[in-house]
Automatic annotation (TrEMBL):
Superkingdom, taxonomy of origin: Eukaryota
Keywords, sorted A to Z: Disulfide bond, EGF-like domain, Kinase, Repeat, Signal, Transferase
UniProt xrefs under PANTHER family: OSJNBA0016N04.9 PROTEIN
UniProt entry tagged with the keyword Kinase: yes
Signal sequence bounds: 1-25
The name this protein goes by in its record: Serine threonine kinase
Entry-linked Gene3D superfamilies: Laminin (2.10.25.10)
Protein species of origin: Olea europaea subsp. europaea
Length: 352
């Protein structure tokens, strides 16, 4: 009987341990009883899939597990795929790429420009993304709206022969890329060619243009062909939880989104509004209520973090190293460590 019970307990414990291991973060990311993932994509609050679970309707995402296996996550009820959401304020969405293709005798056979009005609420991340143009007879523009004005930038990509292309190098021959300004809200991409690819038709008859995550695209000679089969590429967009500055947000404690006790508010580098973060020494979801949000990190669990030679004591938001009785010093591996005997100050004093 007793043994049986123990086995049961052990099994239960094991399954709990397994459960906590299989979730990526070691803290709660969503409200209680809320589905916090779609396939392998985590959905941290303020995002959520139904009323009561999201912060407000602006953070509605939809998981379609009836039609897709693994399930696909979409921005509200649009067809825009989300491939990741981070608490640091980024969202990765898949966006169509623009293309312009010709037959060998210079007749246009397909053309697609792109626009992204639907994502107007987000700022396009100006660090992770680049405007990239691929082709040997291609020019392309990206234009749209910044917060209060229009912008337009362009890139030209040419080459004479296939041998000119350099794998891994997008710097003018068959591929060019340029950074985008801050505060980009809408992105329209159009492209064209100078001579309908007639000079290069033996190895290239399509041009491509996209504003996408730079690390998701690696140029090589085969990109000229491979991109034909690529419909969408990821773009990183920045989300904020609310409008206005932190100061303005704090004035309305009801709508203020930094609910966790040990959280703080910060305005983004790109754009307007505010986000919430956990204070140093804490981790978790700063948007969740009070003690469900930011949790104290137990630095003492990890020797490589605390670097105490003897004993480590966890404190709220930090830790301290402790030396045993009869020792002194800062107790740190990379500091004084624990030194046997009275304190140095005392020894110097007795030296007089
Ligand atoms: C989810 O799984 C896919 C395919 O297995 C992988 O490419 C992607 O990086 C994963 N995403 C996350 C957020 O782990
Ligand atoms: C899932 O996607 C399919 C195909 O796009 C669509 O017909 C269906 O309504 C979607 N289901 C949900 C729950 O969104
Ligand atoms: C993205 O969403 C579309 C439906 O809009 C779906 O067909 C596709 O499989 C999804 N995933 C990717 C990686 O494109
Ligand atoms: C290039 O293509 C465009 C669009 O199909 C066509 O109007 C134009 O006549 C073509 N030019 C040449 C030189 O083939
Ligand atoms: C971008 O394209 C959309 C849809 O085609 C259009 O409504 C919008 O006016 C364009 N934006 C700009 C700045 O031209
Ligand atoms: C460049 O990459 C393509 C395919 O990605 C490969 O076939 C080719 O051999 C590579 N060329 C060089 C010079 O490495
Ligand atoms: C990009 O391509 C270069 C050269 O072909 C290769 O060395 C590198 O590993 C690739 N990087 C990624 C992220 O695919
Ligand atoms: C294509 O070839 C013609 C004739 O040689 C030349 O005038 C033109 O500049 C070339 N176009 C490009 C884009 O190199
Ligand atoms: C959601 O809340 C944010 C911040 O308070 C606000 O800016 C936004 O307009 C709200 N959206 C809706 C649909 O209520």
């Amino acid at each position: 009987m007793g043994l049986h019970l123990h086995l049961l307990q052990a099994k239960l414990l094991a399954s709990i341990l397994l459960l906590s291991v299989s979730t990526q973060a070691n803290f709660e990311i969503a409200k209680p009883n809320c589905m916090d993932r779609s396939g392998n994509i985590s959905i941290p609050f303020p995002f959520g899939m139904s009323e009561g679970y999201y912060f407000n309707k602006s953070f509605l995402v939809t998981c379609n597990d009836t039609h897709y296996d693994p399930p696909e996550l979409f921005w509200t009820d649009t067809g825009i795929n989300i491939t990741s959401i981070t608490l640091e304020g980024q969202l990765r969405v898949l966006q169509f790429i623009a293309r312009d293709c010709y037959s060998p005798d210079g007749i246009r056979v397909s053309y697609r420009s792109t626009s992204s009005r639907v994502l107007f609420r987000f700022m396009v991340n100006n660090i992770a993304n680049k405007f990239i143009v691929v082709g040997c007879d291609t020019y392309a523009y990206v234009f749209g709206r910044l917060e209060y004005r229009k912008y337009q930038i362009g890139c030209i990509s040419l080459c004479d022969k296939k041998d000119d292309l350099v794998n891994g190098s997008c710097s003018g021959l068959g591929c060019c890329h340029i950074p985008i300004p801050k505060q980009v809200r809408t992105v329209n991409v159009t492209l064209g060619s100078f001579d309908n690819f007639t000079n290069v038709s033996d190895f290239n008859n399509c041009g491509y243009a996209f504003l996408a995550e730079e690390s998701a695209f690696n140029f090589s000679a085969s990109s000229l062909f491979d991109l034909r089969n690529v419909k969408k590429l990821p773009r990183v967009v920045d989300w904020v939880v609310g409008e206005g500055t932190c100061e303005e947000a704090r004035n309305n404690i009801y709508s203020y989104a930094c609910k966790s006790e040990n959280s703080y508010c910060r305005e983004p580098d790109n754009g307007y509004g505010y986000r919430c973060y956990c204070q140093k020494g804490y981790e978790g979801n700063s948007y969740l209520d009070y003690d469900r949000g930011c949790k104290d990190i137990d630095e003492c669990k990890d020797q490589s973090v605390h670097k105490c030679v003897k004993k480590c004591e966890n404190t709220p938001g930090g830790f301290r190293c402790v030396c045993p009785k009869g020792y002194h010093g800062d107790g740190k591996n990379d500091g004084q460590g624990c030194i046997h005997g009275q304190s140095l100050v005392f020894e110097v004093a007795t030296g007089y």
